[in-house]
User: Fold HTH cro/C1-type domain-containing protein from Sphingobium baderi LL03.
Amino acid sequence: MASDGKFADVDLSIFKELKKLSGEKIRQARKALGLTQLEVATEMGGSLRWYRAIESGDPGIRLEDHLIALLRLGASTAHIALPVLYAGQRMRFPRQLIHGDLASIERTCIEAISDAVIAGLKQDLSPEW
Assistant:
C-alpha cells in the first residue's frame, strides 16, 4: 500500500491464507469424490507434481488453477470469491467466515445479484403510463 495516495488502501492480509485453505478444500472435495490426485491432474491437463502443489497451497500456483480445480470438482469457490468482493469494496473480510461453510452465503449473494438485475430489467421495461 502506497502512502502517496495513488493506490487504494486495501486490506489484503486474507489472501496470504487463501491458497492454503483452498488447497485443503480441493483435497477434501477430491477425496469425497473418491478420486486420486493423478486422476484430477490428468483431467485438468497438468502434472501430478503441479496438482500436488495446488493441494499443498503452494504460493507459486496461480489462483486461477485453484478456481478451476474447485469448479471441476463441483466445490464452492466462495472462500476465494467473497474475500475478493470485500477487498474490492475496501472492507476487511471477517476471518471467522473463511473457515466456515460459505456455500449458503455464496448462494444468497448470487440470488441478491439476480434479484437486483431482474428488478432493474422490470423497471427498464415497464411502460410509463
Observations:
- Helices lie at 15-32, 37-44, 48-56, 63-72, 78-88, 95-98, 103-125.
